[in-house]
Sequence to fold (214 residues):
Amino acid sequence: MLCLYGITIGSCEGSDIQIGSTNSKYDVLDGDLVAISADTKTVGISFSQISDFKWLDHFSVGLFSTTHDYRWLTPVEDLASPFILGLVFNGKTLGDAITETFIKFPQRDAWRLNQLNISGSKSINVYGDIEAFAEAHAVYLHHSNYKSVVFAPNYNVKVRAGLRYEANPVLIELYGNYYHHNLIGFEPVTFNQRTEHYFDRPYGNVGVKLAVRF
Fold:
């Protein structure tokens, strides 16, 4: 189903408008109303250095460029009847609702996200083989050929901290991550016009990591 400002379009009985198509290009939808696929490719260069500064064990600087290519398909695009597009639901015509919704779909023209990454880390022994660690990552962003709908952040900050136990061959980490502008700059495929409104909010997670080296 596709919800357009309170108008539900789909192939099920609960839809305000039921729609289907005999065009073979929509066979891949297998009964769904819309399909979205994405591909990203990143190239870049970085420099890393181990440090003996009192408050810094390691730092790195990098330049990266990520190309985003989104594709989507829906038979709703084929609606052309002035009568159908002029139908009014909740004070809005179906044609206007479709247009406003498609603006918020990922753009079909490829676009790039260029970024400067700066990061540093520090660990401190707590007891025996247990240490506390902290990492900070700053990302400065430049959008090329991206058509923003509401909000396109030009920076992000990630902080990672926790406890680490390491005794060969076992490594265990208890950690937490904080992202100031969600995952932009760290997980390229997550950001587009459809998800843009989530990126003015912070995001975080906690977890456990277990590694065994052979």
Q: What stands out?
A: The longest strand covers residues 35-53. The radius of gyration is 23 Å. The chain has one domain: 2-212. The mean pLDDT is 89.
